[in-house]
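dumping these here so i dont lose them again. two proteins, back to back, each one seq then structure tokens. dont judge the mess
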Amino acid sequence: MDKSKNNTDTLILASGEGLTYNCGAMNSIFKADDNETSKKYSISKWRPEPNSEGP
């Protein structure tokens, strides 16, 4: 992900693109965070493994 974007740019990411983190039984992909939103919010997708326990 290009971290040089500012808050006036349009950010388009394909499926699976973004900052990916493996958190054990859950995976996350951050589509936009601090640098893309001027530290105002983040957009992320969290996917738990099948049959894993919830929070």
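---- next one ----
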Amino acid sequence: MALGKDYATQECSIARALEIVGERWTLLVVRDALYGVRRYNDFLVHLGIPRAVLSARLRMLTEEGILEKCRYQQSPPRDEYVLTERGIALWPTLRALGLWAREHLTETRLRTFRHVDCGTELGPYGECPACGAAVPVGDVVMHPGPGLDRDPADPVSRALLKPKRLLEPLEPMETASV
């Protein structure tokens, strides 16, 4: 029996969510957008994703209201992709998935996430153990961990070797077009 392409017979909110974010690459595109990647070429070089797949994922995420396509240059026309509130709301899911992988698949710490106000590493639910409050995504600073390649080939990975506040765009000078 062939595997279906959707979850139409499932009466489950997880199945409905997987209709949107369950395809290969989709959550990695959202992850990169949280990291500040906004431009097509930057997604392309950082993810190593086929162009047709990236175009399809960006289109779908835009249609679903997770990303918004914004013009940043008129001539020639150039757009970037910015997370909407709906997209930002995926942060706890991505954080939980990353923590699960670190606990069950590898103990290598590739990145840590800290509260910008006090520098404390976030707890498992995105809370600040020192302040006792939930930390909004915009108040999270991502730090490179000891498991990251210190000499990556692509410019986006190189730019992400420095501490960086989530959602802040990567500066165009930090990345290169392909």
